């Protein structure tokens, strides 16, 4: 049995995926754009043996470079940078009507970051791991371990054909945006328990299970389904290193729903009175990401198992997750 000096066996963690990533524990901190993901959170998870992630999708190139520099100043361990695959330009024809509905006035905002410019930063900074969601971006010239998100078997197969190192299988339970890209979202709402083994059987690359995993029980279950790693987001929302707002922290564990009204793209978030009001209207939200800028409160993206979250420093949470898993997978 293998042990790395923290008091528990980690045989279950010695997977090809962990070796590809250069990490001791195949536990990935999900990238959570819009505030919760911070360089300190990513660095703490990576230093504890997992894989921390920078949520780079909403960052301008200079901000992205600064976040990478910050993580590297805190740890020499591998980490990931996540981007959203390029999306069509949003139409603006429904913006004025939505602004009237939400009560948030129209305002000038800087143009969204260019994906090509963001990718240039990733390439020039030679980040260890590049992860993406919302589709399949151009991957030529990316010298990194590559993780792509799938919500269906067909998406996983397409990702493998595109050359990813591993597939993140995102179950219906997961908080945040749905990564669906090959069909309407309502035809891709598959639970983690059903999705992971189907993807494992359909591709030859490692699979990372994501969605509803909060403790060692969930990690052990994912490994029993054939996953070689897990990705957790909601579990890290209450860590002190996370940039989660106080209101968001208090809301972890409340009822959630998959909705378009907060950002223009389907995402699992806390069901608030605002969400109910916007969903009950007859107004169709503008295209992603415009509703985010026309909402009086920031989206509180949370998974279905938030009630199992713990208020722990990130390193302690990673160690606890590993210890709990080892008890179940000796």
Automatic annotation (TrEMBL):
Which Gene3D superfamilies is this protein grouped with? Aldolase class I
Record-level Gene Ontology MF annotations: monooxygenase activity
What reaction does this enzyme carry out catalytically? 3 propionate 3-nitronate + 3 O2 + H2O = 3 3-oxopropanoate + 2 nitrate + nitrite + H2O2 + 3 H(+)
The UniProt keywords, alphabetically, are: Detoxification, Flavoprotein, FMN, Monooxygenase, Oxidoreductase
Its required cofactor(s), as named, are: FMN
What Pfam families does the annotation carry?
NMO
Name the InterPro entries for this protein: Aldolase_TIM (IPR013785), NMO (IPR004136)
Its family? Belongs to the nitronate monooxygenase family. NMO class I subfamily.
> What protein am I looking at?
Propionate 3-nitronate monooxygenase
> Where does this protein come from, organism-wise?
Phytohabitans aurantiacus
Q: What lineage does UniProt assign to this protein's organism?
A: Bacteria, Bacillati, Actinomycetota, Actinomycetes, Micromonosporales
